[in-house]
Amino acid sequence: MWKWDWLGMSSLKAEGTVKRAMNIMHNGLAILQQGRVLVTDRLHGHILSVLLDIPHVLLDNCHQKLSSFHNTWTRGLKNCRLADNAEDAARYVMELLDEYGDSLPPRLTAADIEEKL
């Protein structure tokens, strides 16, 4: 298990808004694709996991932003689970690991992401 937060990225210090944004995007994509299952409490983590076809667990918070988005737009995804607490998240991670085994989605760059229909 590996814990990471985008706020610690060195790419945040890049000069220029566009260069900084591109660095954050590329570094974020690389980090999201490191493991077999992602646990995230961030909406962008969920959206990128959907686009990259990464099995993931959404860990909702008291504002219920993730559960609202998930229930409205992505409820039918087979590679996503919604958890209310860390214990449920751990259980769902194990389910996804059992379901997907050692398979990893192919590594993609920003240019490779296609719209999901």
Question: Could you characterize what this model shows?
Answer:
The protein is mainly alpha-helical and 117 residues long. 44% of the residues lie in helices and 9% in strands. A three-stranded parallel beta sheet has the order 1-2-3, sandwiched between helices. α2 links the parallel β1 (38-40) and β2 (56-59). The longest helix has 16 residues, at 17-32. It is globular. The N and C termini lie far apart (32 Å). The mean pLDDT is 82.
Name the assembly state: single chain
- Helix proportion: 40-55%
Strand order of the largest sheet: 1-2-3
Q: Largest sheet, if any?
A: 3 strands, parallel
Low-pLDDT segments: none
Count of helices? Answer: 4
Shape call: globular
Order of helices and strands: HEHEHEH
Radius of gyration, in Å, reads 15 Å
Helix-strand category: mainly alpha
**Which band does the percent of strand residues land in?**
5-15%
* Average of per-residue pLDDT values: 82
Straight-line distance between termini: 32 Å
Count the E strands: 3
Domain Polysaccharide pyruvyl transferase: 28-63
Protein name: Polysaccharide pyruvyl transferase domain-containing protein
Organism: Littorina saxatilis
Pfam families: PS_pyruv_trans
Task: Give a brief rundown of this model.
InterPro entries: Polysacch_pyruvyl_Trfase. By secondary structure, the chain is mainly alpha-helical. The chain is 44% helix and 9% strand.
Tell me the layout of helices and strands.
Blueprint: H1 17-32, E1 38-40, H2 43-52, E2 56-59, H3 65-74, E3 80-83, H4 86-100
Parallel strand pairs: 1-2, 2-3
Protein name: Polysaccharide pyruvyl transferase domain-containing protein
Domain Polysaccharide pyruvyl transferase: 28-63
InterPro entries: Polysacch_pyruvyl_Trfase (IPR007345)
